[in-house]
């Protein structure tokens, strides 16, 4: 935790008062379960809190940034910004994954690179920061790490192409969109998935990713761009 403390202070100007809280934010359930006798706390409750404060700050940002947008449009934008893949990307940008405490089994299966775990870590850190320093500190952190990417229009990694494809195709009525795995390459902890998207039974695009969700997004992106 000392290396993490130094990193937070040097790169983000954050100095945690409650180090136990910081440690909990970086403790996955798998680690806590493997050390059950030590009664170690894991980060799921902090994740719940972090999700709430993230939603609040991003909602306020969108409300102030886009006064002409209706509620529905702002909701769509917010959902793309706080998606699992997006939050995992910000975790990697911050270098937080190196400090995550994982159980041996989860570590061996590639958990340190899994978007679900890294996205949860980002939210847990926000929850811990909220309790330790208050909402202003969380907002300052997000405006340092996350908001600049949104300000410059760097939406590529947070675009929900599956939703975009559905909206594009259903303009003229309902269609059936299916995603099917074409191939899986590599060992269990480092698989590469290839997914094909079918529209009313016809192939529309393919994509690859380290998870099925990523591959589905890539396939949807391919289909959207093919129609563009």
UniProtKB/TrEMBL annotation:
Give the enzyme class.
Answer: hydrolase
Q: Which gene encodes it?
A: rnc
Q: What does this protein do?
A: Digests double-stranded RNA. Involved in the processing of primary rRNA transcript to yield the immediate precursors to the large and small rRNAs (23S and 16S). Processes some mRNAs, and tRNAs when they are encoded in the rRNA operon. Processes pre-crRNA and tracrRNA of type II CRISPR loci if present in the organism.
The biased composition feature labelled Low complexity covers 216-228
List membrane-spanning regions: none
Q: Which Gene3D superfamilies match?
A: 3.30.160.20, Ribonuclease III domain
Q: What is this protein called?
A: Ribonuclease 3
Positions of Mg(2+) binding: 47, 120, 123
User: What ranges does the record give for the region Disordered, renumbered to this chain?
Assistant: 208-228
Q: Keywords for this entry?
A: Cytoplasm, Endonuclease, Hydrolase, Magnesium, Metal-binding, mRNA processing, Nuclease, RNA-binding, rRNA processing, rRNA-binding, tRNA processing
Annotated source species: Streptococcus cuniculi
Segments forming domain DRBM: 160-228
Enzyme Commission (EC) number: 3.1.26.3
Q: Which PANTHER family match?
A: RIBONUCLEASE 3 (PTHR11207:SF0), RIBONUCLEASE III (PTHR11207)
Q: Name one GO cellular component term.
A: cytoplasm
| Record flagged with keyword Magnesium | yes
Record Pfam families: dsrm, Ribonucleas_3_3
Q: Where is the RNase III domain?
A: 5-134
Biological process terms from the Gene Ontology for this record are: mRNA processing; regulation of gene expression; rRNA processing; tRNA processing
């Amino acid at each position: 935790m000392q290396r993490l403390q130094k990193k937070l202070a040097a790169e983000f100007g954050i100095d945690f008062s409650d180090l136990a809280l910081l440690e909990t934010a970086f403790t996955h359930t798998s680690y806590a379960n493997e050390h059950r006798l030590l009664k170690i706390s894991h980060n799921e409750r902090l994740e719940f809190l972090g999700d709430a404060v993230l939603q609040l700050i991003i909602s306020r940002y969108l409300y102030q940034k886009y006064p002409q947008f209706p509620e529905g449009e702002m909701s769509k934008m917010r959902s793309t910004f706080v998606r699992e893949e997006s939050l995992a990307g910000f975790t990697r940008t911050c270098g937080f994954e190196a400090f995550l405490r994982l159980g041996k089994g989860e570590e061996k299966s590639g958990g340190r690179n899994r978007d679900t775990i890294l996205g949860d870590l980002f939210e847990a850190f926000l929850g811990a920061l909220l309790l330790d320093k208050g909402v202003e500190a969380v907002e300052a952190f997000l405006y340092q790490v996350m908001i600049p990417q949104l300000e410059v229009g760097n939406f590529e990694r947070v675009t929900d192409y599956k939703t975009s494809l559905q909206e594009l195709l259903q303009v003229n009525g309902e269609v059936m969109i299916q995603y099917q795995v074409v191939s899986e390459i590599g060992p269990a902890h480092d698989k590469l998935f290839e997914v094909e998207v079918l529209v009313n039974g016809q192939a529309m695009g393919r994509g690859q990713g380290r998870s099925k969700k990523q591959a589905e997004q890539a396939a949807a992106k391919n289909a959207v761009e093919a129609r563009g």
